[in-house]
# Entry
Amino acid sequence: MDRDKAKHTIWQHPWGYPESVAIVIGIVIVGFLLQLTIGSFNFYFLTSPVNLIIVSIIVLLCSLSTFFFKNKFVQWFSGVSFSVTLILTLLALCIIMGLTPQNPQLTPHETHNVFIRLGFDQMTHSWAFILVYFATVLSLGSLIARRLRVFNIRDYGFYMNHLGLWVVFVATGFGYADMERYIMHVSEGSTEWRVYDHEGNVKELPIAIQLNDFDMEEYPPKLTVINRQTGEPQPVGKADYYQIDTKSRDGILFGWNIHLEEYIHQAVRSSDSTYKEVPMPGATPAARIIATNKKTGEQKSGWVCGGNQAQLYMTLPIEENFTIVMTQTEPKRFISDVVVYTPDGTTAEALIEVNKPLQIGSWSVYQYGYDNAAGRLSSYSSFELVYDPWKNGVYLGFLLIALGTVAMIWNGKAIRKKYEQKNKLKQN
# Structure
């Protein structure tokens, strides 16, 4: 009898978590069916002004829902149980996305892998994700509109927190369609505004970059012993390396004691076998060392240099088949001195490096790469240009979330203080 009663009451209003979970599962299943039949959703169908129109319609629907605030379906749709279920589902899909290698290609591909066919390798383009996302935006927007209908200044923390979350959802989702990414290669001393699009066609951008100079800071190189015939570092499979360090001048390589006598980070060969310090673009690290055989006491001394495009390398032979060499330097920091121009007359001068991009208007300019073979002598620098006109909306959303969270914590402390004072009065 109780079991029949439970089956009968599950879909009776007011709806709660059981109904919310069932409906969200249904939404996900519908998304999977759409994925299997028509393929992935293409966000680029929502480029401006389509995304602006859809956002306007969403705002209108959320506003109209306030006129039906007594409707039990509207109360459930904008209620806590449905919103929490949707957000947890989005979180679960994002976790799956983080654990599954994502394929940026949108073209259909035949596969027998059920996870790929369901869109898990293109999660943000899968119909299940899209439908849950749209439902979340509508539900959260309706909740905000319903609470604003009976506006209370004391709930300002709630308004900022939820409105900020809604703005972040809208700006990241609908703004994705307007986001553009390009790689631009700029030669030193020249100005460039052209890139290649995904189809290999030349495209002119409304932004130009002038590269004044490209420079690189490098870590000191290492020394190792190689077989002169095969070039393999010794011992094979577990090679010894000595990291050059002027504060720790001694090391061991393949049974030889190494002592660093002199190290020049920017050196130029001054004779057939010697180097001097000359800070210039073609300079390369060089080290003068003494190698002593641990068993026989035999000594070898001389300069070792890794070389570059401007200078030949130099090694120190220690045995018939073995010689000490210097490895190539590893980049510590590479910097591009640029001037960026936009059509509205805005000009920005900056030193761009990894994790220190330039923000100019809706564009972000990141240091992307350089000529790896040339190193410090690279004649060009590569930049990643990201156009995102919705990024300010994302920043605004996160700011509102932060302010709302602080306000809710502050209000919580105030309420707790009043409650404690009330209890003290009762006790007295």
Notes: Residues 391-427 form the longest helix (37 residues). Residues 2-151 form one domain. The longest strand covers residues 202-218. DSSP finds nine helices and 17 strands in the chain.
